[in-house]
């Protein structure tokens, strides 16, 4: 487990993650980012169903180095590259079981009020947890 | 773990499995069936990339009893209800972590030649493994 | 256009609807059912974001007769087989561009209160529209 | 129709493109890119099932400006920003029906031999079609 990412999880692939070229489709990596980030946010206290502040994606990016295929699992590492007042830039690494780098990406959340969708400060409790994930 | 299904696995949910109604969408259960069945088949020796015989779905069905939401995981149980010459009827149970039944369904594979797509006998090695999963 | 289904639409396929076997995956047909039914419901007045009554899927089924592949489009026909007090059984036909039957299925909605998730009568306006889709 | 993108298509949304926040999920935009690009490539002569050269994604990026929700359709524009020997950089614009910019992104294909997965020149016929899509 690489120490340059503070949070790691393993995401099993699904049958239809593979496309006609027989490997996990590029789009799926973004579904993994969403899942990884929101799993971490929920553990850190975000209430996706009723909380007043929610995170909306304003930018995402991925570089693909290699590939895996169902039924292989993806190991996913998360860290925070920049923690702003209302925005957070996450950095993500995807590794195969043998530590081969499959892909690297980033994803930017702007936190907004659930109803007005106007930018809002990252909630205090969440910010505390996020501070621990900032790298370097 | 219920003993009326011979093979069990746990499938984590993903962010976008939830729909606007806040729970895992009905379609996702079929993606779980595909994943559960093919995971078992691959472990039992099916070569999805190059094997001469592949399984095509000719029928599927699901009854929904309750629901879960991301980030909850789904427990999925598999058994075989009927093992024919070239077709197999799988039966699937989906449970929440507390054993609540979320859904129950079935799924029928017809095994076919990869190139001609004409029905073919279930390969011998696979049939042996399948026999152990037949219930009751 | 077959007259035994009262509402028809065409659903383009997407790159990743194809699986490793090179055709539209079985799961995708259920995504098409959800899309077809909810498109019709929204046109008929259902408010999926704020309405007090929503439809939840309690059963779905599909028989697969043939297949199509991206970039082919799917033609989808909808009718209502049974219109109950709080439940509706939809019947769906999927056709290729040349009228070949690709699949046939059904899908049962129970209408519930959005908050309590307890069964509720189909809203009057919606019921009127549904009556026109009942077959035969 | 903006003239700075040479190819336009309209992609209908699906029920489950919406996430719990009630709008089309960020991941879906990448599924649209894959669909848009491959639709164009197939029209230009790429054989995704049997051709000796295939395009693999090595990088993708998206900036999200606004959002749409099912059942709204997305208008998608495609152009080529850089046409190399074996790689192509596509640029994509997503617009709402009223021309509001929903998102803008790019996507880089490296063409490879289907079997060896080693870089290969863009096939001549495809290159001719691509030249017409280069901007500015």
Short description:
The first copy, chain A, is an alpha+beta fold and 136 residues long. Helices cover 19% and strands 38% of the residues of chain A. Chain A has two helices and five strands.
Could you walk me through the main structural features you see in this protein, from its secondary elements to its overall organization?
Four copies of one chain form a homotetramer. The first copy, chain A, is of the alpha+beta class. Chain A has one domain: Thiol Ester Dehydrase, Chain A. Chain A is 19% helix and 38% strand. The first copy, chain A, contains two helices and five strands. Chain A has helices at 26-43, 124-131; strands at residues 7-12, 53-64, 73-83, 87-95, 101-113. Chain A has a five-stranded antiparallel sheet. In chain A, strand 3 and strand 4 form a beta hairpin. The longest helix of chain A is centred in the first third of the chain and has 18 residues, at 26-43. The mean pLDDT of chain A is 97. Chain A binds chain D through residues 20-21, 25-27, 30-31, 34, 48-49, 54, 56-64, 114, and chain D through 20-21, 25-27, 30-31, 34, 48-49, 54, 56-64, 114. Strand 2 (53-64) of chain A pairs antiparallel with strand 2 of chain D, so a sheet runs across the interface.
């Amino acid at each position: 487990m690489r120490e340059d990412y503070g949070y790691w999880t393993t995401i099993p692939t699904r049958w239809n993650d593979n496309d006609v070229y027989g490997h996990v489709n590029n789009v799926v990596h973004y579904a993994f980012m969403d899942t990884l980030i929101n799993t971490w946010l929920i553990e850190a206290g975000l209430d996706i169903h009723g909380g007043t502040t929610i995170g909306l994606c304003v930018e995402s990016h991925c570089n693909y180095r290699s590939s895996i295929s169902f039924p292989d699992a993806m190991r996913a590492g998360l860290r925070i590259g920049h923690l702003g007042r209302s925005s957070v830039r996450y950095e993500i690494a995807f590794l195969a079981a043998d530590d081969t780098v499959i892909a690297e990406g980033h994803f930017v959340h702007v936190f907004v009020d659930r109803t007005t969708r106007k930018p809002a400060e990252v909630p205090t409790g969440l910010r505390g947890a996020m501070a621990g994930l900032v790298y370097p």
